[in-house]
Amino acid sequence: MDPLIVVFGFGVGVLVGMTGVGGGSIMTPLLILVFGVKPVLAIGTDLGYAAITKTLGGWRHLRSKAVDIPLALWMAAGSIPGALGGVAVLEAFDIDEDVLLLMVAFAVLLTGLMTIGRALLRPPEDERHSINMKQPRTRIRAVLLGIAVGIVLGMTSAGSGALIAVGLIVLFRMNPRRVVGTDVFHAAILLWAAAIAHLVSGNVDFGLMGNLLVGSLPGVWLGSSLADRVPQSFLRKLLGGVLIAAGIALVAKAGFF
């Protein structure tokens, strides 16, 4: 057991539980930059550990009635095939490691910007507690949002939290508590699909994943309990800054400056 990996897993788990953001966006860069894991193995292993972590977080939010289940399922109808398509692209093309690093960097930078943007977004005056999914237009928006996020996640492991969260605010005007709960619950479904696809492709290090889980499971349990007690705006701005820094570091590692 590697104590440092366990500590990192705990910290990321707390962030995921509190904000719904930070799983793949933080852990994949850490595995690549700090522990020297190959990008494709870091992506697959991160997705496997994050699937289990967010399942626990999703269950906690579901118990607290903070999940819009119909909306989450309609998003999953798009995100699961999107993620499988992203993994298929990685397997079908022999992507250069530096190019893959740039792809991860782009996804992490985008996630960082979206995380800060989410913190700066003012809650809409007509916030919704739940979304009426009977309208075809609403279903289409949910599926398209899911497809876009699924492709990014399948190829880079980043973005499932921040990108979905911003979509829930901008497209559906959902209130903050339901945003976090629905986001984490949907991410758990999506991550299992992407993780299984990477597992089949041989991109998961089970020993590394086990170390991460030892820290992340108690971390996400604690974070979910603290979700309503921590100043979310400040935390998301800080997290966004960390993600942007990690993205820049990945670009530098790829040798582009």
Describe the 3D structure.
- The protein has helices at 3-19, 23-33, 39-63, 69-92, 97-120, 136-156, 162-170, 176-200, 206-226, 232-253.
- It is an all-alpha fold and 257 residues long.
- The protein has one domain.
- Helix 5 (97-120) crosses helix 6 (136-156).
- The longest helix is centred in the N-terminal third of the chain and has 25 residues, at 39-63.
- The N and C termini lie far apart (35 Å).
- Number of helices in the DSSP assignment: 10
The first-to-last residue Cα distance is 35 Å
- Which structural class is indicated by helix and strand composition? mainly alpha
Portion of residues in helices? over 70%
- Low-confidence segments: none
Beta-strand percent range = under 5%
Topology as a string of helices (H) and strands (E):
HHHHHHHHHH
Largest sheet: none
Q: How many domain units?
A: 1
Mean pLDDT: 79
The quaternary organization reads as single chain
Shape: globular
CA radius of gyration is 17 Å
Total number of beta strands: 0
Write the layout of secondary structure elements.
Blueprint: H1 3-19, H2 23-33, H3 39-63, H4 69-92, H5 97-120, H6 136-156, H7 162-170, H8 176-200, H9 206-226, H10 232-253
Helix pairs in contact: 1-9, 2-3, 2-5, 2-10, 3-8, 3-9, 4-6, 4-8, 5-6, 5-7, 5-10, 7-8
What would you say about this model in short?
The protein is mainly alpha-helical and 257 residues long. The protein has 10 helices and no strands.
Name the descriptors.
single chain; 257 residues; mainly alpha; 0% strand
